[in-house]
Amino acid sequence: MKTDDELQRDVLDELAFEPMVDHAHIGVAANDGVITLTGHVPNYAQKMAAERAAERVSGVKAIAEEIEVRFENDPKTTDPEIAGRIVQLFRWDVMVPDDRIQVRVEQGWVTLHGEVEWNYQKEAAQAAAGRISGVQGVSNLIAVKQTEPSPIEVRDRIKAAIKRQSMHDADTIEVSVRGHTVRLSGAVRGWNERKVAEQAAWAVPGVSEVEDEIVFA
């Protein structure tokens, strides 16, 4: 008599052998000779073919068939489909280092892991994942590589960015660095200059926190 593990393996092998079935999204569980088929297929014919394939396996006593038919134009909202679409989107997004990020999806909730060099890459990954239909939420656990930021480099980058994007002098902004935290202080004339300063601080490698204490003149 076959064990459950042997029976499960034989059914999986039979599904892979059946040319009418795309078995990539079919799951198989075995319990005392009872086979449960789960997952989804693109049409009803494949659903029936999968059931017949399982019935052919010696030792199968009964089949609980829970396969869904999902047509090509149906929204792709199962967890594996969501994960696949996120991974594909990451590959096409030049701002996301897809080889450094892992994606997990559970009941529509996306969790991102990995390590990147820049904070904007972390934010870009979260924004991209959130655009996929069926996503219920995103937990962004991506770490920013902890290289020690240079206070002079941070200050110079922020001041250069403000000068490029603002009509006003950047010398009114003070920058201090403590470990991986950047503190911004001083006075600016409008929201745009304050936002530019924040973005410039986040763009420096190794910065994991920005304390914005800038006030308006």
Helical segment count: 6
The span between the termini is 83 Å
Helicity level = 25-40%
Architecture (CATH level 2) name of the largest domain? 2-Layer Sandwich
Low-confidence regions: none
CATH topology of the largest domain: Histidine-containing Protein, Chain: A
Question: What's the total count of β strands?
Answer: 12
CATH class category of the largest domain: Alpha Beta
Domain module tally = 3
- β content, as a range? 25-35%
* H/E element sequence: HEEHEEHEEHEEHEEHEE
Shape summary = elongated
Question: What Rg is obtained from the alpha carbons, in whole angstroms?
Answer: 26 Å
Structural class: alpha/beta
User: Averaging pLDDT over every residue, what do you get?
Assistant: 85
Your description of this structure?
There is one protein chain. The protein is of the alpha/beta class. It folds into three domains: 4-69, Histidine-containing Protein, Chain: A (2-Layer Sandwich); 79-144, Histidine-containing Protein, Chain: A (2-Layer Sandwich); 151-216, Histidine-containing Protein, Chain: A (2-Layer Sandwich), CATH 3.30.1340.30. The protein has six helices and twelve strands. Strands 1, 2, 3 and 4 form a four-stranded mixed beta sheet that branches. Helix 5 runs antiparallel to helix 6. The longest helix has 15 residues, at 151-165. It is elongated, with a radius of gyration of 26 Å. The model has no long low-confidence stretch (mean pLDDT 85).
